Amino acid sequence: MLEIPAQIWQRTKTSYIWRSLFRHGYPDSRKNQSLAVFTNVFLHLHPVKVRRHALAIPYTWCMGGLSFFLFLVLTLTGTLLMFYYRPTTEWAYSDIKDLETVVIFGQLLRNMHRWAAHGMVITVFLHMIRVFYTGSYKPPREFNWVIGTLLFFFTILLSYTGYLLPWDQLSFWAVTVGYEIARATPFIGDEFSFVLFGGFQLGPNALLRFYVLHVVALPLAVGFLIAIHFWRIRKDGGITGPL
Amino acid sequence: MRQDSVVRVDKRVEDTAMVWPHLLVIEFIAAMLWSIGLFVISAAFNAPLQDHQTPDCTPNPSKAPWYLLNLQELLLHMDKGLAGVVVPTLWLVFMATIPYIDRSREGVGIWFTSKNGLRITIFAAAYATLLCFSLILLDAFLKAHGYIEFASEYFPGGKQLLPNYVIPIVIMIGLSVLLVIIVQRIWDANTREWMIAIFTGFISVYLVLTVVGTSMRGPGMDLFTPWSVPATSQCYAPHG
């Protein structure tokens, strides 16, 4: 019975096309397990082997990985939301309403984006706490900690810029609080808030600026910093552990 | 040139595991569980959406998103620029410089570094939580008893200089320095250990401010117990 599927599988695995995609056999031997990791663009961020200590969930809480996971979820759901949303004062609110009432799975999409965003603020914060209390900022990881604090800051900014976009009472007045704070910046308050919000009150310019920051500028900056962050983790010997 | 990371990385063969399958399985399961969890939460709870914004109708209180309510809470106790811009900026800069101040390699990869570290963490958390909460209560008490009027009349510089600048700055720096001195006296703290104290103190204050700002501030940003906060009035007419 199973001979035919087995034959097809065998044929497929030895075919020219398959071997152009995967340059190793099924990863059940050490050699193929190693090849599976370092010949795969998505997995090659990992080393082939890690210290057993690094697998301990009570040690890492998985929080760094989960922050990255939520970042990917947010990128995906955010891109889908962009198909339905126009960042103008005429359309922003009604587009969100349409998402909730007209677009199939639109409400679920928006909910996922919203809760994942809250989740990412929490996971990044917990990741930072874990890294601090385990002394993982110590040499040679000093600069990676600096990048981490920047990523924490950018996570808050990403969340905050997204908060304005529904253009409802909640978002408008919440961001007004931030606007008042920006205006209170010593010495350059007016100039700073004018550049950030595009005027002396929250209007169409602020909405457009926050949108561009939210979907282009900040995600690019975060993606760039994440790349450096991960690369340095590898170069510094992976996740910390007792010496 | 020193080849730091090459010299420092100590990977013994015997305590290593293959990434495929051991690490990837954990990552896969974590991603699956969180995906399912996110689906369930998103199916159960809708993201909030209120009426279309209107500048004529100010909700009372207007609150920032919860992760910024710590700053909004801080605004109530000192100058806006100080609370909203200067303090967080200085804190971020200080955080970034932690590894350049605490340069020892003691305790890498060990939670709290040592038993002392754990004791200091607990002490600093209690110290900061109690003090921060007491100061918020004291502020509310004083303001309810004519503090601002008193300051305007008798303090040099009126209600601005001392209440909005000098007193908060002295309290923030003074209590931090006091914390470091205490842990140095009691536990003979080294750099890593007093850094734990300061960091824990900050995290505790951050959490207290977030909790108070989120669940204890009602209309007019007045202080309430969490179970008696009145509902936000959606359209507050300042002159009506």
Please tell me about this protein's structure.
The complex is a heterodimer of chains A (243) and B (240). Chain A has 243 residues and is mostly helical. Chain A has two domains: 22-55, no CATH class; 62-235, Up-down Bundle (Cytochrome Bc1 Complex, Chain C). Helices cover 69% and strands 1% of the residues of chain A. The radius of gyration of chain A is 23 Å and the shape is globular. Chain B is mainly α and 240 residues long. Chain B has two domains: 10-44; 58-236, no CATH class. Chain B is 64% helix and 4% strand. Chain B has eight helices and three strands; from the N terminus they run H-E-H-E-H-H-H-H-H-H-E. A two-stranded antiparallel sheet of chain B has the order 2-3. In chain B, helix 5 packs parallel to helix 8 and helix 6 (147-154) packs across helix 7 (158-187). Chain B is flat, with a radius of gyration of 24 Å. The model of chain B has no long low-confidence stretch (mean pLDDT 90). Classes of the chains: A mainly alpha (243), B mainly alpha (240).
Concise summary:
Chain A is mainly alpha-helical. Chain A has eleven helices and one strand, in the order αααβαααααααα. Chain B is mainly alpha-helical.
Question: What general outline of chain A do the C-alpha atoms trace?
Answer: globular
Level of helix content of chain A?
55-70%
Total domain units of chain A: 2
Count of the separate structural domains of chain B = 2
**Share of β-strand residues of chain A:** under 5%
Mean pLDDT score of chain A, rounded? Answer: 93
Based on secondary structure, the structural category of chain A is mainly alpha
Question: Quick one: biggest sheet of chain A?
Answer: none
What class would the helix/strand composition of chain B place it in?
mainly alpha
Note the main sheet of chain B: 2 strands, antiparallel
Give the strand tally of chain A: 1
**What is the CA-based Rg of chain A, rounded?**
23 Å
Measured as a percent range, the helix fraction of chain B is 55-70%
Distance between the termini of chain B: 72 Å
Using the 3D structure, state the CATH architecture of the largest domain in chain A. Up-down Bundle
How much is the radius of gyration of chain B in Å? Answer: 24 Å
How do the strands line up in the largest sheet of chain B? Answer: 2-3
- Number of helices, where a helix is a run of at least 4 consecutive DSSP H or I residues of chain B: 8
Order of helices and strands of chain B: HEHEHHHHHHE
